[in-house]
Amino acid sequence: MNIRPSKIVCIGRSYAAHAKELGNAIPTRPVLFIKPPSSMITLEKGITWNHALGQCHYECELSLRLDQTLSAVTDPQQALAAVGAVTLGLDLTLRDLQTELKGKAEPWERAKAFDGSCVLADWIDVSDVDLNHLTYQLSLNGEVRQRGDTSLLLISIAEMLCDMSQAFTLEKGDIVMTGTPAGVGALQPKDILNMTLLTKTKEITWQTHVY
């Protein structure tokens, strides 16, 4: 399946430890924001940003591809059935700019939705994973910086999808980035990032570079 998404829906503060490390309150419902399709790039293209805007932080996240449309869904099983594939992605964040925007009570898009801010690995069929207990990690220059486990999400993936579908229709091909665990940090030119996903049958590692 190769459908250009209408949008990439992202979840903020979905892991308690990450909310804590940034000094944010723990939410009682999903914190939603959207990246446009123009933000997507492949691992091969590598990571770049306008350095004049300050630090760019990595945020490794389990990402979902929807193979069915969801609208105003309340049944968690129906929501999960719409997920066709998963991968790991990087929700890149211009952290200095985001902090400035937060201080002015302005939206985050300038810091979150820039070209190249959504870096996605290869899709894996959902049949090879357990969405309720799926582990992954990110290493920076050979050192593990982030470890994620969907069993630790504050709001389950099924609940996330139901909540989103109440706010707006999730269309076939749309991508959902489920939020990042603790351990985010700034990137530097020449950094090498490895993202590893443990499925039911294998361990998969993808690599990208910072330019």
Write the layout of secondary structure elements.
Elements: E1 8-12, H1 16-21, E2 31-35, E3 40-42, E4 56-58, E5 60-66, H2 76-81, E6 83-91, E7 93-94, H3 95-103, H4 109-112, E8 118-120, E9 124-125, E10 135-140, E11 143-149, H5 157-167, E12 175-177, E13 185-186, E14 192-198, E15 203-209
Parallel strand pairs: 1-12, 3-8
Antiparallel strand pairs: 1-2, 4-7, 4-13, 5-6, 5-12, 6-8, 6-9, 10-11, 10-14, 14-15
Give me some keywords for this one.
5 helices, Fumarylacetoacetate hydrolase, domain 2, 8-stranded mixed beta sheet, 15 strands, 211 residues, 4-stranded antiparallel beta sheet, globular, 17% helix, alpha+beta
Can you tell me the residue ranges where pLDDT is under 50 for at least 5 consecutive residues? none
- Count of beta strands: 15
Order of helices and strands: EHEEEEHEEHHEEEEHEEEE
Please report the number of helical segments: 5
Mind telling me which CATH architecture this is? Alpha-Beta Complex
- How many angstroms does the end-to-end distance come to? 30 Å
Query: What Rg do the Cα atoms give?
Result: 16 Å
CATH topology group: Fumarylacetoacetate hydrolase, domain 2
How many domains, as an integer? 1
The largest pleated sheet is described as: 8 strands, mixed
Structural class: alpha+beta
Quaternary:
single chain
Beta content: 25-35%
Q: What is the arithmetic mean of pLDDT? A: 95
In CATH, what is the class? Alpha Beta
Tell me the helix content: 10-25%
* Coarse morphology: globular
Going by CATH, the homologous superfamily would be Fumarylacetoacetase-like, C-terminal domain
